[in-house]
Design a protein that fits this description.
With 392 residues, the chain is an alpha/beta fold. It folds into 2 domains: 183 residues, Rossmann fold; 190 residues, 3-Layer(aba) Sandwich (Rossmann fold), CATH 3.40.50. 40% of the residues lie in helices and 16% in strands. The protein starts with 9 loop residues before the first strand and ends in a 7-residue tail after the last helix.
Length: 392
């Protein structure tokens, strides 16, 4: 519960502002009046880009200088911004390769601002081991020195806490999307009805499996194509819709041809949230075999269950924390194409089963990963940094 808006100059530094972050930051600007968000340009060859039509009263470009080919090490033109705005609190995206953070800590005692770091918590691909990994050791040191740290999910906070001497300045703001807007769209779609939405989209098949997101190797869309091949050989009433673009696009289309798939539709990238929302809403199951992130929130906000693969060790993003196996979706055995196909078919096999999964998916969006939950996490961290909140 948020009680009263925090006053004072707050700056947020982000490397870029993807389209799915735009509305979230606008919500933060409502919570923190006068908030300014600084951002730079993507690295060369990056598949993500900045959102269009960013409100200049909230967002201000500052430019990024990338020091390696991957874009993981960078510094931005933040110095003049700091002297110009004289912030009380600076919230920065927290990557060890973000060299702005070290500049912030150097300037902190002279400019007297508080530093809040915002992050997943650790490298999702390998976990967190500050005793043996130098990058993790730096991350832990910075986490301890910060006035507050905001984690994307509880697992991130708990993982870093295991190695931390102090943890009262650690907070969770569930990483999410503008669910208020997504819930509004779902309500509009509910009034129209699923069949009318399907007609608008030109979906002729009774069941529609859906994937939206970037076409990257770690999303493992090739596994999805192979699982759908199992289904398509048995029945004619299903289709698979793939929305997105990325470096794997051509390779995936070749795989679909080799599998002789007749009812797979590649629609490329769609950024219009209403159109994308209709496709997810009209989907019976959202399937992302690879790394789960905010796509889970997106799907659950329209009441569409999610299926992915259960990965040992560290792999998935924070989205896996919202997926409850057998309740709002499934996590199948890694690499088991037949089980993936089986669970996809199971959810559509009975209307009562499908309805229950859809109900549970939407309930999770409302109760566990709403934009309100995220705002509450930010509110607590900022109030703590200002000395007006005591973490219990």
């Amino acid at each position: 519960m948020i009680s009263g808006k925090v006053q004072g100059k707050i700056l947020i530094f982000q490397r870029i502002i993807p389209h799915y972050r735009k509305e979230v930051f606008k919500k933060l600007s409502e919570l923190f009046p006068g908030l300014k968000i600084f951002y730079g340009q993507p690295s060369a060859g990056e598949s993500l880009s900045n959102a269009a039509s960013l409100d200049s009263s909230i967002f201000e470009p500052c430019g990024n200088l990338y020091l390696n080919n991957s874009g993981s090490i960078f510094i931005s033109g933040i110095l003049r911004k700091l002297f110009r705005y004289k912030p009380e609190i600076v919230i920065s995206v927290f990557n060890v390769g973000n060299l702005n953070i070290y500049l912030l800590f150097l300037l902190k005692p002279f400019m007297n601002f508080k530093i809040i770091l915002w992050s997943f918590g650790y490298d999702p691909a390998r976990g967190f081991d500050p005793g043996n990994n130098f990058t993790d050791k730096i991350r832990l040191m910075l986490s301890q020195k910060a006035d507050a740290v905001i984690f994307y999910w509880d697992k991130g906070r708990e993982t870093v806490s295991e190695f931390s001497e102090k943890t009262d300045h650690y907070f969770t703001a569930p990483n999410t999307l503008d669910t208020d807007r997504l819930f509004e769209l779902k309500n509009e779609f509910d009034i129209k009805g699923k069949e009318l939405i399907k007609n608008e989209l030109g979906i002729q098949q009774k069941y529609n499996f859906i994937y939206t997101g970037r076409l990257l190797k770690d999303k493992e869309v090739d596994i999805l194509l192979k699982a759908f091949s199992v289904i398509e050989k048995k029945r004619t009433d299903c289709r698979l819709t793939i929305i997105g673009d990325g470096p794997e696009s051509s390779a995936l289309k070749i795989i679909a041809e080799e599998l002789n798939l007749k009812k797979v539709f590649f629609l490329n990238e769609i950024l219009d949230e209403e159109i994308t929302g209709k496709w997810i809403y009209a989907g019976d199951v959202y399937v992302m075999p690879g790394r789960l992130g905010l796509s889970v929130v997106h799907s659950f906000s329209f009441g569409t269950p999610v299926i992915s693969q259960n990965k040992e060790g560290h792999f998935h993003g924070e989205g896996v924390g919202y997926l409850k196996n057998g309740v709002n979706g499934f996590l199948v055995k890694d690499g088991d194409i037949n089980e993936l196909a089986e669970k996809m078919e199971y959810i559509i096999c009975d209307e009562s089963i499908s309805a229950k999964f859809r109900e549970n998916a939407f309930s999770t969006a409302v109760n566990d990963c709403s934009i309100q939950k995220m705002m509450e996490g930010f509110d607590k961290a900022v109030k703590y940094a200002k000395g007006k909140y005591f973490n219990s």
